[in-house]
Design a protein that fits this description.
By secondary structure, the chain is α/β, with parallel strands linked by helices. The protein folds into 2 domains: 94 residues, uronate isomerase, domain 2, chain A; 328 residues, TIM Barrel. Helices cover 50% and strands 9% of the residues. The strands form 4 sheets. Strands 6-7-8-11-12 form a 5-stranded parallel beta sheet, with helices on one face. A 3-stranded parallel beta sheet has the order 1-4-5. Strand 11, helix 17 and strand 12 form a beta-alpha-beta unit. The two termini are 42 Å apart.
């Protein structure tokens, strides 16, 4: 079999039929990514492939950066100010060693699907690829909005601080009919959850200013958050996202929460219990708000961040120094949170992603305990980050299928900062089709293309369309000009 030929990842005839005749042509709803709405709005061409593929300063693809460091590439050619062609060559040299890593496959997929470059990417082919890719990047087809639209993407959900004025979302909303896709905000209150950081007081003031509320206690914080939910909702926001590196459920009175907030505002030392009491109260309120507004609440849990402290001090977060978390009881703590909120009938639609696959079975068996009022309102999220591999995706699909109803799954997301990441949906769809093709070959599901084809179409697109309700009044084909 040739590298990434038309049947790659598809191991039998049913898998090939399911992909080529059902999954392949389905549109994309990218409900979680880290694209910059400013870049989408300004819609400028990238000067070269290094800028769109590797980095612009310290903002870029930390998946690639980790591999480049492993291959001995100096930081000057990773996040530094080194020559951009030399950075590209350093990535080519790294890819030569990346066989077996999903980035080897993604890199070649992106060259094929966007640039029509079908050969191997290595140090020998790199000069010609540099020339061809850079020439194409100057054309209208390679402006950010066209990269999105031409990838059959109907909705993109960015990741936005609740204190954001969402300026670029407002501008994009006015032009979405012409753009051919919706750019929607998704609230991620990381700064609010990090009350141990020294600038927490400044952040509360910033949030309060945007909300028109003086935040001086937990009650006023709740009023401010309600206003921000209203604001995001008015611009099409329908999701929130919450990073829980570690967490312990500790319920407490609002008076205790107020005391902890005052300690944080004054810069006094906080204990782990202080942090978890505040987090618990905040998560409970966020669950109420997600439920009230009909949003979906996403949890990204059990990651270990910024392990290399000197490099964190130099480069900041999200630069490739993170790892799988090891909190063994984190799902138990979330179970306690959901048990408490079930007593208030305040369970929102929820998606749980854990960076540690040891958590997946516990999450999958927890989910049915709190599902009510709709189709698969709680979901085990797609294989995330270090699990974003063919094997990781297959494991997630298997666990979801065995413990709940996989045909109700909302499917894949890019979780990416790059406009060239949409082939990750193709990669996932191939894995999905092979998963069901293998079950059919083993006699475990019917050898019925129509039946299985509907399932893969639903997981590829239809379920996300129905679940998130990004187009409440019109179908996408009626919405866009």
């Amino acid at each position: 079999m040739a590298l990434l030929d038309q049947d790659f990842l598809l191991s039998n005839e049913m898998a090939k039929k399911l992909y080529n005749d059902h999954a392949k042509a389905m549109p994309i709803i990218d409900f979680h990514c880290h694209l910059n709405p400013k870049e989408i709005y300004e819609n400028n061409n990238y000067p070269n492939i290094t800028r769109v593929w590797l980095n612009e300063g310290t903002y870029g693809d930390h998946y690639k950066w980790r591999l480049m460091r492993a291959n001995g590439v100096p930081e000057e050619l990773i996040t530094g100010d080194g020559d951009e062609y030399q950075k590209f060559l350093a990535w080519a040299k790294t890819v030569e060693k990346a066989a077996g890593n999903p980035l080897y496959e993604w890199t070649h997929l992106e060259l094929r699907r966007f640039f029509g470059i079908n050969g191997r990417f290595d140090t020998h082919s790199a000069p010609k690829i540099w020339e061809k890719a850079n020439a194409l990047l100057q054309t209208d087809a390679f402006k950010p909005r066209n990269l999105i639209k031409n990838s059959s993407v109907q909705a993109v959900c960015t990741t936005d601080d609740p204190a954001s004025d969402l300026r670029y979302h407002k501008l994009l909303k006015a032009e979405e009919h012409q753009s051919g896709f919706r750019t929607l905000p998704a609230m991620r209150p990381d700064k609010l959850m990090q009350l141990e950081k020294p600038n927490f007081d400044d952040y509360l003031q910033e949030l309060g200013t945007q909300a028109g509320v003086m935040i001086d206690d937990f009650s006023s914080l709740k009023r401010a958050l309600h206003q921000r939910f209203e604001f995001f909702h008015g611009l099409g926001g329908r999701l929130s996202d919450h990073s829980l590196l570690t967490y312990q459920f500790i319920d407490a009175s609002e008076s205790e929460v107020n005391t902890i907030m005052q300690k944080a505002v004054k810069g006094r030392a906080l204990s782990n219990d202080d942090r978890n009491i505040f987090l618990t109260a905040l998560l409970e309120e966020l669950m109420r708000l997600n439920h009230e507004f009909g949003w979906t609440m996403q949890f990204h849990i059990n990651s270990a961040r910024d392990l290399n402290r000197p490099m964190y001090a130099t480069l900041g977060p999200d630069t490739g120094y993170d790892a799988v978390g090891t909190q063994a009881d984190i799902v138990l703590q979330i179970q306690k949170l959901y048990t408490k909120m079930q007593s208030e009938d305040a369970i929102p639609k929820s998606i749980f992603y854990s960076l540690n696959p040891n958590d997946w079975l516990a999450i999958a068996t927890m989910i049915p305990c709190f599902i009510s009022g709709g189709v698969q309102r709680l979901q085990l999220g797609a294989g995330w980050w270090f699990n974003d591999t063919a094997e990781g995706m297959t494991t997630q699909l298997r666990i979801f299928a065995q413990q709940s109803l996989l045909p109700n799954f909302v499917g894949m997301l890019t979780d990416s900062r790059s406009f060239l990441s949409y082939p990750r949906h193709e990669y996932f769809r191939r894995v999905l089709c092979d998963f069901y093709g293998r079950l059919a070959a083993a006699g475990r599901v019917p050898d019925d293309e129509a039946y299985l084809g509907q399932i893969v179409e639903d997981i590829s697109y239809n379920n996300a369309y129905r679940f998130f309700e990004f187009f409440p009044d019109q179908k996408p084909e009626e919405f866009f000009d």
